[in-house]
């Protein structure tokens, strides 16, 4: 950009110099022709004793006139050159503005593109994770395991069975993972809701609460302490999902 401005300035100055030279030459020729015509006319129409100026005086006045015209043209040329220099300096001083503007625009565009791309990738990952949960939940064996765990929670006697309690812990951990992903914005929650997984998690928590209270009423059943510990220390996200998600 700076080189282009300097080249344009040089061309402008050369053109101006050519115009000035032509103007000086024309003025000089015009004044000489006028002096010759005046001398010829005086020689034809007037006697020699009426001549007011000699040839040397006329040439001297023409030289003075040429000098005056040349001085004016030089002054105009100098003024134009000063303005061109000032304009060139101004353009050189502001060369960085387009560069900065381009850099800012590029940064904004890059940030916007990255933001859109990241959001798209996050939504895609959330949908894939949600589909994995739904697929696991729809598995026949897993669906049966959840049903058996719900039945275990309705019977304090079955809770005493280690296998039954182990099954409850396994199902509860799965719902805890679902709730953790939900709370961490890693799920497509609308997809999860359409498949009713949140209501199954809430139903499991509700059964868990009922089982804990039933065990507390039965002093011979120690499972109330185990269930309370699971709820307090291990299934906090599941509790949040059961009490905050509608």
Could you describe the 3D structure shown?
There is one protein chain. By secondary structure, the protein is an all-alpha fold. 87% of the residues lie in helices and 0% in strands. The longest helix is centred in the N-terminal third of the chain and has 44 residues, at 2-45.
Features of this protein?
246 residues; disordered N terminus; mainly alpha; single chain; 2 domains; rod-shaped
Q: How much strand?
A: under 5%
How is the biggest beta sheet arranged? none
The Rg value, from CA coordinates, equals: 50 Å
As a percent range, the share of helical residues equals over 70%
Helix-strand string: HHHHHHHHHH
Q: Count of DSSP E strands?
A: 0
| Number of alpha- plus pi-helical segments | 10
Helix/strand class: mainly alpha
Distance between the termini: 63 Å
Low-confidence residue ranges: 1-5, 30-51
* Count of domain modules: 2
Mean pLDDT rating:
78
Global geometry? rod-shaped
């Amino acid at each position: 950009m700076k080189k282009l401005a300097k080249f344009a300035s040089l061309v402008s100055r050369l053109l101006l110099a050519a115009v000035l030279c032509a103007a000086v030459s024309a003025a000089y020729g015009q004044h000489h022709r006028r002096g010759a015509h005046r001398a010829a006319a005086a020689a034809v129409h007037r006697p020699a004793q009426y001549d007011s100026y000699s040839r040397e005086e006329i040439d001297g006045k023409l030289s003075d006139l040429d000098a005056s015209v040349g001085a004016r043209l030089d002054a105009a040329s100098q003024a134009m050159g000063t303005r061109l220099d000032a304009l060139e300096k101004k353009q050189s001083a502001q060369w960085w503005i387009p560069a900065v503007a381009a850099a800012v625009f590029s940064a904004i565009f890059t940030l916007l593109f990255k933001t859109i791309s990241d959001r798209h990738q996050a939504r895609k990952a959330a949908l894939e994770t949600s589909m994995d949960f739904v697929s696991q939940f729809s598995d026949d064996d897993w669906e049966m395991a959840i049903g058996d765990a719900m039945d275990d929670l309705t019977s304090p006697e079955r809770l005493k069975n280690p296998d039954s309690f182990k099954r409850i812990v396994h199902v509860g951990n799965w719902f805890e993972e679902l709730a953790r992903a939900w709370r961490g914005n890693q799920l497509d929650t609308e997809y999860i809701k359409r498949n009713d997984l949140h209501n199954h998690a809430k139903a499991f928590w509700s059964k868990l609460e009922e089982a804990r209270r039933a065990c507390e009423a039965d002093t011979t059943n120690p499972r109330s302490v185990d269930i309370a510990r699971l709820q307090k220390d291990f299934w906090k996200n599941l509790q949040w999902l059961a009490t905050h998600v509608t």
